[in-house]
Design goal:
The chain is mostly helical and 153 residues long. It has two helices and no strands.
Length: 153
């Protein structure tokens, strides 16, 4: 009976030793998997950080281009406004001149041609001013589309 107990004790000890070894191997496997997952997470975090920086850079470029476009539109708009004001003053001066002086028929025809030319120039400037406003809206829309593409990529 003592030998049977000894045999059972040895079997139990061997079984426990095998289980401990199996547990140790599983723990090592889990540790290796955990390290692998941490490396993958670090790689993914780095990729996300890189993409974020790329998106921010793209947004900054869009914002800068939009700012430059608006600045140029503002300058062009101011120039157009000044030209319109100048033409309006010339038209007023010519109108005043026509009403104040006695002119020959030839002079009246020349002034009439000049008035029509100034009026056409003024109309063209006003139309250009309107197109610039549309251009600003187009820039705004295209920057919005570029931002949407960033978020969908």
């Amino acid at each position: 009976m003592a030998q049977w107990q000894l045999s059972e004790t040895i079997y139990t000890a061997l079984s426990m030793s095998a289980q401990a070894r199996q547990y140790q191997l599983q723990a090592q496997t889990l540790s290796a998997q955990c390290e692998g997952m941490h490396r993958q997470a670090d790689i993914m975090a780095e990729r996300i950080r890189y993409e974020y920086e790329q998106h921010i850079h793209t947004l900054e470029c869009i914002a800068e281009a939009f700012e430059v476009s608006l600045y140029h539109n503002r300058c062009a708009s101011q120039q157009l406004t000044q030209l319109c004001v100048g033409i309006t003053h010339q038209l007023s001066a010519l109108t005043q001149y026509l009403t104040d002086s006695q002119m020959s028929a030839e002079q009246l025809v020349q002034l009439n041609v000049l008035l029509q030319t100034l009026h056409q120039q003024q109309s063209a400037l006003i139309a250009s001013h309107g197109l610039m406003g549309e251009h600003s809206v187009d820039i705004y829309r295209s920057s919005g589309q570029a931002i949407e593409q960033l978020y969908h990529s």
